[in-house]
Every structure is written in structure tokens, then in C-alpha cells.
Amino acid sequence: MIDPRFYEALGPLTVRALAPSADIGGDAERLVFSAAPAERAGAGDLCYFEAKKGSAELASSPAACVIAPTAAHLAPRAGALILADKPKLVFARIVTALARPRGFGTERIDASAKIEEGVWLGPGAVIGAGAEIGARSEIGPNAVIGPGVAIGRRTRIGAGASIAFALIGDDVTILPGAVIGEQGFGVAGDASGPVDIPHFGRVIIQDRVTIGSNSTIDRGVFDDTVLGEDCKLDNLCHVAHNCTIGRGSLIAAFAGISGSTVVGDGVTMGGRVGIGDHRAIGAGATLAGGAAVFQDVPAGEIWSGYPAKPLRKWLREAAWLSRKASGVGNAGD
Questions:
Q1: How far apart are the C-alpha atoms of 280 and 231, rounded to whole Å?
Q2: CATH number assigned to the domain comprising residue 297
Q3: Does 241 qualify as catalytic in the annotation?
Q4: What would the pLDDT profile of 218-243 be if each residue is shown by its tens digit?
Q5: Residue 270 counted as domain residue
């Protein structure tokens, strides 16, 4: 469900009104109120399906679905089908008619914001409509707290930070310049060019998390991006949409974690670690500085290198390469 604290509903609209020029199967006059992923879409939702993932959930979904004609048989219970060769692209173009992010009013501190006792607001701080800030928190100069954002008690937001579409726990520290909750990097396109995919998710930051200066945490497409209790991010880190970072994880500067990656509890990442999308990093794993991770990493293992691999294997290969490069052990030596 799209969180109404952050997004304004624009519907309902009929399927025909959403896609007036599309080929529609089923009830073109069906009312659509919101949007959801295919596996959770209800009767009043719009979803899309591309055959890169399983179709079991789609088989029982009553939603209006944007789907390729060749895959239409996978959605026998859909209330309506919007037939398109590029479902994600069509979905991205039409879903903005159903919901949009809530904006700022004209007041710097919106009258509807709930600010508890002992909160310090720095010069130029902006607080959006419906935002909630817990007791004894600090909002630094020129920080921007978006509509609907909830911030717990004793949390510190640094100067110039931007917080949107987010629920933040107690005793959190967000250093200056960090950007939390903006839209992630998701695009679809065709010969006419790329189109941004709207994001309707949130960021959840649990208690005692630290986020370094100029780090960025993207909100999810529909699901949440979650940072578990006690995780610590250095300066200039990036966590993409739909990621989950486990409790107590330590992430050094310049780390980049691609979308829909799950990082277990107690993971340590050195500087400049890069992780590909849809990866799983097991609890207690260590990724050495500069590691480029394109595979899942089992719990408790240490990986290093480009591409990353188990540390012992990487060391053996590095030693072998060094010997070959120096001529040691070559035939005729």
C-alpha cells in the first residue's frame, strides 16, 4: 500500500482513462485507485508484469495489470489487462496519474507539523506538513524535513541534510549533506529514450544508526529501503532502492550498494566496495576495500578483489600472477 503520509492519491480513474490508446482486455471501465507490485496488488490496484520473475502470484491477482500480449494468459483473474510490449515502460508513464508525492507549502515550518518538547531547529530549517519530530532532537541549519517524515527522539540531523519519505528511529545521527529518501535510479525505455520509474516506497532507519556526510539512501519502488539498528555508514556511501542493511553493519566510505540487495547482520565493508543488484551478503561477512561483488556472499566469509571472491582464493591467484609476472617458475628459468 502506498503510504498516504507521503503520497497524495489522485484516483480513482478507469483503466480506459489511464491508457486511452492501449489495447485493453477485460473491463476497461474498472476503477483503479492505487498501484502495487504484482504479488500484492488488489482489486483496486494497477500493477505490471514482466516475465523475468515467477508468475505464481499473478495467477490469482484481481488487479488491473500492464502486461505483454504474449504473457496475458498468466493473469487469468485480472480485472483488466493493459496490453503492451514494454509493460514497465507503460506502467511508468501512466502510474503518475494515480499518485504523486506530497509537496511543501509556503510556510517554512508547516503549522501541521508535530514538534515535541526540547527540539532544536537551526536557522533556515524547513519542516513539511504532517512531519513529526521527537523530543530533544536537533535539526541543523538549512536541513529539509519533508512532508509526513517521522523522526524519533534524541536524533540529530546535520546542516543541509534532506530527509523525505522516511521514518527514522531514536538516537539516530545523520551528518551534514546526507540525502535520505529521494527517488532511486530506475529507468525503462524504448527507441524514444529512457523514462524514470516513479518510486512509491519509503526509507526506514531504525534506532542508533549513523549516516555519514553526503551519503544517499534511496527510497524503494514499492517496498521499503531499511537500515537496521546500530548500522554505521561512513561519508559518501550510497544505498540504492529496496535494499535491506542488517543490524550492526559497518560500511566504509565510497561504498555503493545496488538495488534490492540484502545485507545480513554484522557485515563489514571496506572503502570503495561495490555490490551488484539483487545480491545477498550473509551475516557476519567481510568485504575487503575495493571489492566488486557480483555474486552472493555466504555468511561469515571474507571476500576481496575485482571481481570479488573468497579471500584465500584471491590471495592464491594474486600470488600466482605475481610469480608469473616476475618470471619466477616459468619454464626455462
A1: 17
A2: 2.160.10.10
A3: yes
A4: 999 999 999 999 999 999 999 999 99
A5: yes
